[in-house]
């Protein structure tokens, strides 16, 4: 991707809002470089897969909100150093503080070069400020690095991904609210649970600027995420409403492009809150009516007009997963199907079902029929059962590979696509007598993903959905949420 001129960045941002352009250029790094985009006189912005906002406090150095991922750490340091460079009348502006909006690895791996630079020059290192739960997250990430490696390999299609085990912990933490004052600027830090339990949004009243972190990401909220820890959709909606009350004129999000103008910001935050509120209300009503998870899941109606907004496109996460997350948050893991309370091993059950049907191949053929009729969900159940009953059967594997390849192509979210593509590759490896990595990387898109091009919903990827907004990005596997 060629580098685009930062002078054009705000014009591009405006086109994205109008629906005349997509997030592809932003997320793929076309505006990421060795200088910052100027959002205002005091505000610099690193437009990247994971954004960083930089504030010139006047007499007291620079403050960063977030630090980006490992891929952009060098560029961020270069760009911030240029932003704060000495002039005829003023010395170089040091980075005084870096606020983590949360502890996800795409937001906290840009501090290293600033620490090293400060050490080399004998000046104070930046003070890293975050919510108090960030440290526990880093501890958990280290303790569950194996699990996190596997689920992120599957989610993003990166078989060589290794989850990091060394983190830059915060120097200062807070619980509910913290005010930082540097130079002419005030940084009001508010804690809210949403995508994470450790989220902070930052309000700078003098600049009427709001840094949302991942509480706003130009995507349907990441409040479902099947393979990751609890999310908090209702708290998230409340935080969106509270942020809307601030009257911001500039919104700098964790991912995706800035939003400029109070009416647009109010609309984007309000629509996002409304989507989550609708999912919460419906899920709670169905749970209170005593329904099983299955009935709740298929009973909640997703507000299609909201999902159609360019900033709510389900390119990364999706509403169906949010319903499951609410079930887990408000209920328990038991889905109210008594057979699932203390189930038989699933391979034994599959063998019984295959025997009853007349063989695993019979089940697989029925799956192929269902696939042909467009019954993708049902086809997956039958193909999965057949493969559990006969894991090395090549005819069964061929059907399972086809079913999941079609399912991946029919999905809009990275999370669904990642799981289905991985399953398709597993079975293709059985058919071909090859291995998973070979099968994952047969297509051009697969090779780009495996090389670390983290997908968050792809525009016209040859084997992805071509459903409009959002993008594919970058080069390194560490940039995962
Ligand atoms: Zn993020």
Q: How is the quaternary structure best described? A: single chain
The distinct bound ligands, ions and cofactors come out as:
zinc ion
Spans of 5+ residues with little confidence (pLDDT < 50)? 455-481
Derived structural class: alpha/beta
Q: Count helical runs.
A: 18
The percentage of residues in β strands lies in 5-15%
Annotation keywords:
six-stranded mixed sheet; Serine Threonine Protein Phosphatase 5, Tetratricopeptide repeat; globular; 18 helices; disordered C terminus
Care to give the gist of this entry?
The chain is α/β, with parallel strands linked by helices and 481 residues long.
Explain the overall architecture.
- This protein has helices at 9-18, 24-27, 73-83, 112-121, 133-143, 145-156, 233-245, 262-288, 293-299, 304-307, 319-330, 346-357, 360-372, 376-389, 394-410, 414-432, 436-440, 444-450, and strands spanning 37-38, 43-46, 52-56, 62-65, 95-99, 127-131, 172-174, 177-182, 185-191, 200-204, 209-213, 250-253, 259-260, 454-455, 472-473.
- It has 481 residues and is an alpha/beta fold.
- The protein has two domains: 6-273, Metallo-beta-lactamase, Chain A, CATH 3.60.15; 344-440, Serine Threonine Protein Phosphatase 5, Tetratricopeptide repeat, CATH 1.25.40.
- It has a seven-stranded mixed β-sheet, covered by helices on one side.
- Helix 8 packs antiparallel against helix 9 (293-299), helix 12 crosses helix 14 and helix 13 (360-372) runs antiparallel to helix 14 (376-389).
- Residues 455-481 have low confidence and may be disordered.
- The structure holds zinc ion.
């Amino acid at each position: 991707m060629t580098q685009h001129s930062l002078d054009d960045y705000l014009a591009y941002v405006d086109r994205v809002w109008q629906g005349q352009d997509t997030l592809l250029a932003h997320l793929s790094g076309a505006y990421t470089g060795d200088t910052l985009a100027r959002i205002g006189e005091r505000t610099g912005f690193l437009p990247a897969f994971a954004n960083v906002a930089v504030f010139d406090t006047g007499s007291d150095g620079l403050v960063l909100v977030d630090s980006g991922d490992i891929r952009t750490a060098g560029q961020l340091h270069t760009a911030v150093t240029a932003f704060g460079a000495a002039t005829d009348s003023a010395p170089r502006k040091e980075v005084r503080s870096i606020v983590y909006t949360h502890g996800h690895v795409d937001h906290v791996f840009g501090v290293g070069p600033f620490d090293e630079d400060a050490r080399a020059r004998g000046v104070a290192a930046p003070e890293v400020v975050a919510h108090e739960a960030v440290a526990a997250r880093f501890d958990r990430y280290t303790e569950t690095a194996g699990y996190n490696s596997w689920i992120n390999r599957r989610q993003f299609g990166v078989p060589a991904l290794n989850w990091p085990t060394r983190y830059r912990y915060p120097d200062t933490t807070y619980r509910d609210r913290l005010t930082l004052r540097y130079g002419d600027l005030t940084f009001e830090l508010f804690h809210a649970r949403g995508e994470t339990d450790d989220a902070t949004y930052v309000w700078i009243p003098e600049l009427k600027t709001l840094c949302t972190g991942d509480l706003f990401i130009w995507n349907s909220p990441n409040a479902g995420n099947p393979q990751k820890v609890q999310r908090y959709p209702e708290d998230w909606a409340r935080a969106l409403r509270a942020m809307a009350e601030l009257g911001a004129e500039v919104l700098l999000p964790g991912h995706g492009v800035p939003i400029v103008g109070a009416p647009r910001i109010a609309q984007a935050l309000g629509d996002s809150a409304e989507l989550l509120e609708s999912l919460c209300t419906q899920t709670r009503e169905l749970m209170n009516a005593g329904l099983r998870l299955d009935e709740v899941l298929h009973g909640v109606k997703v507000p299609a007009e909201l999902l159609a907004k360019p900033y709510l496109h389900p390119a990364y996460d999706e509403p169906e997963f949010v319903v499951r997350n609410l079930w887990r948050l408000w209920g328990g893991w038991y889905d109210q199907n008594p057979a699932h309370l203390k189930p038989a091993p699933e391979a034994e059950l599959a063998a019984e079902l295959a025997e009853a049907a007349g063989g695993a191949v019979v089940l697989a053929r029925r799956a192929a029929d269902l696939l042909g009729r467009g019954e993708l969900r049902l086809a997956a159940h039958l193909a999965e059962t057949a493969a559990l009953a006969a894991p090395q059967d090549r005819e069964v594997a061929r059907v399972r590979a086809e079913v999941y390849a079609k399912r991946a192509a029919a999905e809009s979210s990275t999370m669904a696509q990642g799981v289905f593509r991985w399953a398709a590759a597993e079975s293709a490896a059985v058919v071909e007598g090859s291995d998973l990595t070979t099968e994952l990387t047969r297509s051009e898109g697969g090779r780009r993903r495996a090389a670390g091009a983290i997908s968050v919903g792809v525009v016209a990827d040859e084997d992805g959905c071509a459903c409009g907004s959002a993008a594919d990005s970058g080069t390194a596997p560490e940039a995962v949420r």
